[in-house]
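Work Package 3 (structural annotation) set out to generate three-dimensional models for the target panel prioritized at the project kickoff. During this period the team completed the workflow that converts sequence records into discrete structure tokens, so that structures can be stored uniformly alongside our sequence database. As a representative example, we reproduce one entry of 292 residues exactly as it appears in the project archive.
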Amino acid sequence: MATKSVFLIDGTAFCYRAFYAIRNLSTSDGRPTNAVYGFAVMLQALRDKEHPDYLAVAFDVGKPTFRHEKFEQYKIQRKPMPDALIGQIPVVKRLLAAYRIPMFEQEGYEGEDVLATIARRVAANGVDVFLVTGDKDALQLVNSHVKVYNPHHEGAVLDAEAVKARYGVAPERMVDLMALMGDAIDNIPGVPGIGEKTAAQLLQQFGSLEQLYRSLPALESAPQRKKLETGREQAMLSQELARIDSEVPISMTLQDLALHEPDWRALRTLFRELEFKRLLAAIDEAAPAAPS
């Protein structure tokens, strides 16, 4: 019997990707719909291609999170969500409700923390978990039952071997790698002057961030040693910022994520309202006939 699969979608990232992938789509009265349309297309493509047994979506709630409390500058360089996208988020959630797909979010945490918590709990049931995200932060969660499904690269699946081949370290050392090299996207400082290649080499040599700092006197390169000594506090802070929290206080079980038949009436109503003629035609072919 084949192992059952759980697909967990980073809903906020999915919305952004849909919003920027499709431009200038709106209803006849000018209501923007590009993010909702793109989300619907990507969601249906995932369902058709992968046939998941279980499916769920997690969203960011917004600032502040526990990371902002540790470091006020966390993600400060990111532009605010565009108003045209903000207005579509509730409609995306209506779409998911019509598909009967459960949604999760939690104040004080990011969507990736929620995904990690769900992944940890359901993986204990022996199912294969696929985190649908293009964020490299999620690679730290990869193990024998958890993989990253990258929607940016035609559903490329990244397992532990793929992570090590790409970054030079095992998934469990990705947090240490980001602690050293930083992350410009999330404004995680890292150690100034230590890039990805050097960070990977240091971790290959010493095994972990903690062991690296315990062994600094053994580091042959004096310039590297000075950078690491000067940047010790930033490295430890960056390690905290990069580590995903998989203990978010949410209530759920594996069965809560089971795939169900969509609410076809609700989907038809939504697609008519948004003037999604192509999607409406597609569900009219797939769904039972609407009652007269």
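The chain has 14 helices and six strands.
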